[in-house]
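So, who can interpret the following?
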Amino acid sequence: MSIISKKALSKIKPNMTVSLGGGCNVLNLAKDLNNARIPGLRLYSPSEITKFQGKQLGLDILTLNDNMPKFDLAFDGCDSVDRNFNALKSGGGIHLFEKIAAENAKEYVLLLPKERFKEMLNPTVSLCIEIIPNCLNNLMTKIPQEYTAKVRLDQSVASFAHSPLGNLLIDIYPSNSWLDIEQLNDFLLKQNGVVSSSYFKNLVTSIITESNNKAIEIKKG
């Protein structure tokens, strides 16, 4: 049991409805949940991998669908989070469904290594935009020139990477810092064909990380 997942596990009580996102810390929590046998839990996940790994552990993890439940807790990983608890969740490419889970949770808790919690968002972590394929060329012409934009490639086959909905993913990087990420994000979300972005603003309620070999929960505000 990792110290981060142990701290997260302590928040989960019988008969709760819980969402498990993606990442290694969430997988550790799934393993600990399987061992804890907390009665009456209803588990969901926006992550195909988390659902598959959970099934291998013996957990019954349901898919998010049109009948979206209200979650007592939603746990997730994160690539970068700033002092105001704004987050970038870009690596997995499933931010649309992770954001839906966050919006329907009483508490949205990020589990992450301490180096990912900084004063400002990490400029080496992209702002990832999910876009309908037919709108790709049009959007690429709209991205301001001071940013670097790349269509994400599939790492296993010679093709573009696709989201669970079959859309394309565009990774956008700043030249120096993410000072203007909110303005860029708002602009891009207004463009035709853009489905979602990996920028999570005003959704995170707390983070669980480690400090001096102890797990701590830091709450917003």
Remarks:
- The radius of gyration is 17 Å.
